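Researcher: Next sequence.
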Amino acid sequence: MRAALYLRVSTEEQAKEGFSVSAQRERLEAYCASQGWTIADTYADEGFSGKNLDRPEMQRMLMDISSGLVDVVLTWKLDRLSRRQVDALHLIEDVLAPRKVGLRSATEPFDTTTPAGMAMVGMLAVFAQLELATIIERVRFGYHQRLSLGKWSGQPPYGFRYGHSGVLEEDPETAPWVRAIFREIRERSLPDLASWLQSQGAPSYRGGEWNFSTLAKILHNRAYIGERRTQAGWIRSGHKGIVTEEEWLLAREALSSRAKGLGHPRRGQPSLYLLAGITFCATCGARMAGHKSTEQRRYYVCDTTRRTGKRCGPGYVRKEMLEARVAEELMASASVERQDRTQERRRDSERLAEVDARIGRLIEALEVGAVPVTAVRDRMDALQRERAAIERARKEGDALATDHQIRAMWAALPKMWGVADPGQRQEVLRTLVGRIEVHADASVVLDLL
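Model: Next structure:
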């Protein structure tokens, strides 16, 4: 009897539990020896799922069966061939039976050459699928049970950590910085606050540099007032907030005020001077206003220079030159904004793929009996929480990174600036820029909203 030994392992967990390819091969070779069979060939698919038959060694074995080189297929368990009932029955009824090739399992007592054996194979496949469905249902139930008890699911927000009972608690290292963020935003713009946190050595959310997108996520997150997000919206959670609801609302009000351009000149007929109202001398701090000379040339000049007649800081700066420099800085900021968001999305996608792969490997290990259900419930729950946290972060990043109007302007800025009329350009500047400082060498620093 010429036997084809089929081996498959798809997860590290199976290898750790003794289901490695080498362990399967040793057991099957011993089985052949006890039956007096000759080993025609060994087919080992390592790192392949049993969800379908699209595996290189499986396909090679099917070709050898079609060529008449095999009398019986021997495997460790039926689910090594496939974990789907329809695939297992297809192999037996459409591939093996027409060629009078038998199927044996080293651990399961069935004989496919008899009606009773075929019934046994069908029941084994059905129960394998039933076990998987039951496990998945238990995992889902456990997830919703945690939510109903007020326990957090996913990666804790910045400033929090998990307590012993699974409820969020303050992280002693980062919670004080959360309070500082909600306090300082009342006096600082987002970019200024990011620079301040960087200078103070505040630990960032993911180990990188602080930026206004990260800060906006924190300032919009109601977890800091003791709530959690569900499909129905934000509800009270089982954890204590880091800031009060009043502090959270004051921070949101400060963000909203800047986004609406409070403190800027009245909007109406656009000024000939695009930077009027938001441009200041870095030397004395006075506002810089437009000025027209007798030669019909236009300049920006700080109020101190205009009143005293003595040069302060940059003195008189040509209108065209200053507005061009501001536009260059604005375009550079738009590029950085897009790169930051693209990199963050790429990191989230990579993390999602990694978590999904780990969940898949864990489910495969469960369904083949490589690990007991009780041993992996917590791990599966943790993976589901991690995945939910990544998805939530992606959605919040898209919806809350900045005000919707600001996000749209940043995205369209590189294309629209060159064709925008003065009024449109002025509207963009009032929305995106809180303050422009002009230094003595006429260089500019933009304080973005």
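Model: Confidence is low (pLDDT under 50) at residues 260-269, 398-404. The first strand starts at residue 2 and ends at 9.
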